[in-house]
Amino acid sequence: MKFCRLIHSILLIRATNFGVSGKTYMFRISNVGLSTSLNFRIQGHKMKLVEVEGSHVIQNLYDSLDVHVGQSITILVTLDQPPKDYYIVASTRFTKTVLTATAVLHYANSNAPVSGPVPAAPANGFDWSMEQARTYRWNLTSNAARPNPQGSFHYGTITPTKTIVLANSAPLINGKLRYAVNGVSYINPDTPLKLADYLNIPGVFSTNSLSELPSGRAATLATSVMATSLHDFIEVVFQNNENTMQAWHLDGYDFWVVGFGSGQWTPDKRKSYNLVDALTRHTTQVNPH
Fold first, then answer.
1. Per-residue pLDDT averaged across 1-24, rounded?
2. Annotated Gene Ontology MF terms (predicted)?
3. What is the pLDDT, as a whole number, of residue 15?
4. The domain containing residue 117 runs over which residues?
């Protein structure tokens, strides 16, 4: 697992037939960076969140929205303000140096350019961002899964097969800074994993190299593979003990993000899980500590 720093911020807006007063427009915002969250806002306008990574959500109104690495959201914006030009802003979050990119929302009959300071992102940082994430709820009346005896959308009633706790860290290994999960920093084998698995080639990887719980052992290098079985239903806890935001992506699958919390995870945290209308996601942010 390797992370890179965002070195610049780009906001692209294609303005076609924009700016008619009273009309509602849809924006799709994607964070295609590698390590940095961003905050998106439109001066003087409320944003109605309608979709997050393919899930229709309860349509709450927001002044600004945090979009984390690898995530996409859809908003509706009604042009209900006095006709003039307004800032559209994207800025980095949780970085020492805040990088900002702007565009202009132009009303069709505007005679006034953008004015005033560029609207600032929320100042409360990680706690504010986590509270906002908790407000993202599946809209069960709009395009949600319908009753199906074999449908796994009843995720809150399924007993997990196992619990896996994955803790990220940034250790020095052989004098080099690397990232690790449960004390193991991944290295690519010469033989592709799928080929080694299909042909039963020994020595390429071991399913014992990565423990299902943080071990506390010294960090090592390995081609880490974790074994599960077909139809397993797994509870995964992402434990971030670092000082920076982390992003986790599950390739080829989606999952329900049922809770965010602070401190070390314990089984008692399950009491706060959202087991009714949590979103299905492909990527989730994990706040520091």
1. 54
2. copper ion binding; oxidoreductase activity
3. 43
4. 23-135
